């Protein structure tokens, strides 16, 4: 089992194959400080090659997911002078961008459980989740322009998630939308009307994930990320080779055998599987 880093701003709880990562600054509505960015990056780095962790569940403590960036960190950066090619504002902003990239390309399935404020950087994290489940009371916004700044690191991921037309509307007007509108836009996949329903939806998602082969899931996620970034013929050529390797591989053999024997494959077995 991977040794997880000690964290002051995150609460970590591994339950079977799922790592529950909770943003844990409830007094600040889980605003994303530089310390939180660094700790989250360290967690994803630690589990990068851990096949025992199949998914990461992101959520926030105290009824909010994340209210955006930490104003105190921005104030501290303002007091520093840019020198020798270093710029405290740029470096602070880019550190979060690197985290978003890391979460986006993680081999694990990332599930975002979205409640309360989902703003700024929290909005960006939602956009790089593989599955987003939201309470109907959640509030989503890109408020940066109303504060005189720009959504520099999250904007490209918002465009990838919901398209340029809707990203323009939300970013340029600083609009706030509820869970149902977020679902209509394609930002989230499901909207639940109670905490119990949200928990049930999360449990169902993890149960579905466990039925899928871990290596095949990771390879599929990586393949999907390549679409639109390289020529289609070469992408399909490489995908065909990956398919052949998968069929001949351990998971392919086990999946085929399990299907023929009408039993769950080895990766889908849990403590209560007969």
TrEMBL record:
Domain of life: Bacteria
SUPFAM superfamilies: ClpP/crotonase (SSF52096)
Family to which the UniProt record says this protein belongs: Belongs to the enoyl-CoA hydratase/isomerase family.
Name under which the protein is recorded: Enoyl-CoA hydratase/isomerase family protein
Organism, as annotated: Marinobacter halodurans
Taxonomic lineage: Bacteria, Pseudomonadati, Pseudomonadota, Gammaproteobacteria, Pseudomonadales
């Amino acid at each position: 089992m991977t040794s997880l880093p000690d964290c002051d701003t995150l609460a970590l709880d591994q339950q079977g194959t799922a790592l529950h990562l909770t943003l844990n600054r409830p007094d600040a509505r889980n605003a994303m400080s530089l310390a939180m960015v660094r700790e989250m990056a360290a967690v994803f780095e630690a589990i990068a090659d851990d096949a025992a962790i199949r998914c990461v569940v992101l959520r926030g403590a105290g009824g909010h997911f994340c209210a955006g960036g930490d104003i105190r960190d921005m104030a501290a950066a303002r007091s520093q002078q840019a020198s020798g090619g270093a710029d405290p504002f740029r470096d602070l902003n880019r550190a979060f961008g690197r985290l978003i990239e890391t979460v986006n390309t993680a081999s694990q399935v990332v599930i975002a459980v979205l409640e309360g404020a989902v703003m700024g950087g929290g909005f960006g994290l939602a956009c790089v989740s593989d599955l987003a489940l939201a309470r109907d009371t959640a509030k989503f916004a890109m408020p940066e322009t109303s504060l005189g700044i720009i959504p520099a690191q999250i904007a490209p991921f918002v465009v990838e998630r919901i398209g340029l037309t809707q990203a323009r509307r939300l970013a340029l007007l600083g609009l706030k939308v509820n869970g149902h509108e977020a679902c209509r836009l394609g930002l989230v996949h499901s909207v639940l009307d109670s905490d119990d329903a949200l928990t049930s939806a999360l449990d169902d998602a993890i149960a579905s994930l466990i039925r899928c082969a871990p290596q095949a899931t990771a390879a599929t996620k990586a393949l999907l990320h390549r679409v639109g970034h390289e020529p289609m013929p070469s992408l399909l050529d490489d995908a065909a080779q990956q398919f052949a390797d998968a069929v001949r591989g351990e998971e392919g053999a086990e999946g085929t055998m399990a299907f023929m024997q009408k039993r769950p494959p080895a990766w889908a077995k849990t403590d209560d599987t007969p």
